[in-house]
Amino acid sequence: MTRVTLPIETVRATLAEICRIRGLSAEQTEPIVAEYLDAELCGVRSHGVLKMLALPKAIRERQGAPHIALDRGFAALVDGQRELGVLAAHFCTALAIERARAHGFGMVALHNAARYGRLAPFGERIAQAGMIGLIMNVGGTFAAPPNTNVPALGVNPMCLALPRADGAPIVGDFATTEGVWSEVLLAQLEDRQLPPQRFIAADGAYTTQPEQAYAVRIFGGIKGFLLNLTIEALCSALIGALPAHKAQSEYDLGFLFMAFSGTLFRSEAELMAQELSALADMLRRLPQAASEPLRLPNEGSAARRAESLRRGTLDLHPKLWARLQALAADPNAL
User: Fold this and answer.
1) Does the first or last residue of the chain, that is N or C, have fewer Cβ atoms within 10 Å of its Cβ?
2) Residue-wise pLDDT tens digits, 292-334
3) What's domain 1-60+292-334's architecture?
């Protein structure tokens, strides 16, 4: 596959220019660029700089800054006012941490905001504050439940982030489906096939042709179905957002950000992180296959990030790079 190799800082400057010429401040631009560039560095290309292509339209649809619409002390409901997803998620993550410091547990529901890509960076931020983070949201209506070919539920990702006393947090971020729809969009842009055994056509057969993709199966049989349904219920019926099949736009969907402090049930907050470090150490001491040693969640992404930074370059598809350059050159381009 033909790729163009670019200095990381060239890509960063181009992404920043897309934001700047559309009126975003440096303070607003920095976290957006950092998030999508980091996803690309980590090899999560479906959630990387591809996401910048949707930004111009999302910027036009903003209505204001996120604000607390309902306050329950340890919990809050935030009206995102169609804020850009990364900025709304930063607001909710900080609020969840603040409430957990005050009450031992913080729970923030968000609706009326754009989606933001990976959950991991926000879970990691909670873990870096010494807390357990749990984040989830309803995704687009592409998930087909078991024994049906009909997309009826969201892809519904979740993230668990665990603090450690002596190392980087353990962070797992995954959709509850065999693939994510951004993979279809990326394959269409790059004129290539989809990975096998992930997406299904209208007749229920797996397809590798992006133009034939109709739905994606929920992973893990009935257990994965239950997890997907749990997220759907918590992020819609519980908080007053719409379920995926009723949503008319991404602004109808719901998100949850939860932070659990070590003081919730214990007097010494640091004990939680110490015991989670011990748990990670125990897992590393287990007998492991020489060909594929045990890897904690997020370690693969961290290794890919480190290698990208060592090289100082990113490889992008020429069509994607051309689209990004066009957006950076014209503030009216969509």
Assistant:
1) N
2) 888 999 999 999 999 999 999 999 999 999 999 999 999 999 9
3) Orthogonal Bundle (1.10)
